[in-house]
Amino acid sequence: MRKTYIYCLWVFTAMSLSAQDPSSLAFDAVKAAEQEALRRAETAMVMSLNMSKAQKLQKAKDFSGAAQIYEEAIGLAYKLGNLSVVEEQVAEARDGLEYSRLQTAYKLQENNQFTEAAAEVDKILVFDPENKKVPKFKKFNSQVEMAHKGKVPSNTVLDTIPAVRDQQAQIRTLVRDGQAYFELRQYDEAEKSLEEAIKLDPHSDV
């Protein structure tokens, strides 16, 4: 019974295929070509929009934001396919990504953040594994770091500087407030401001 059922199903399928209008097959081929053309146009359009946005950010010196858009553009191009359509734009996006990441890395290097600078350029290799500027920068970065050893504060100290400066500014403001209250003969308010300043830093010269 099972063999008979399978045989009948095979015969029915064969008859259905042979009965198909050849023109319908031709229509499918045309439709597929049209869909492919649409996909190519979509890829080119999306890539163009992303490139324009990234270039504006790069021009505004928002290198971190520009790098992110360049990465998204490259990733989207691979996802949509049809790389031959946007080959030049993908190459341009890689160049923009390289430039933006390097600019960010140089800025980190200027701030003595050598580890962060090296990590920044490593992000280029995700999209351009054969990039030649990355190893050159990392070598230069290591040389600068060695030259700075013993001459600059540690990263731990550097990280605390902004908080210390903010506290000092707050103390100065409280002292000025205390002086102003004192001159206005609002002695309770003056005392309160000065006590707050002392609590923040009992040893402050201010």
What does this protein look like?
The structure is a single chain. Helices cover 83% and strands 0% of the residues. The chain has eight helices and no strands. The protein has helices at residues 2-19, 22-59, 63-80, 87-110, 114-127, 133-148, 155-183, 187-200. Helix 3 packs antiparallel against helix 4 and helix 7 (155-183) runs antiparallel to helix 8.
> Quick one: biggest sheet?
none
**Shape from CA axes?**
elongated
Would you list the SSEs in sequence order as H and E? HHHHHHHH
Structural class: mainly alpha
Q: For the terminal residues, how far apart are their CA atoms?
A: 102 Å
Strand content: under 5%
Question: What descriptive keywords fit this protein?
Answer:
elongated; mainly alpha; 206 residues
Give the topology, please.
Elements (H helix, E strand, L loop, with lengths): L1 H18 L2 H38 L3 H18 L6 H24 L3 H14 L5 H16 L6 H29 L3 H14 L6
Helix pairs in contact: 2-3, 2-4, 3-4, 4-5, 5-6, 7-8
Summarize the structure.
This protein has helices at 2-19, 22-59, 63-80, 87-110, 114-127, 133-148, 155-183, 187-200.
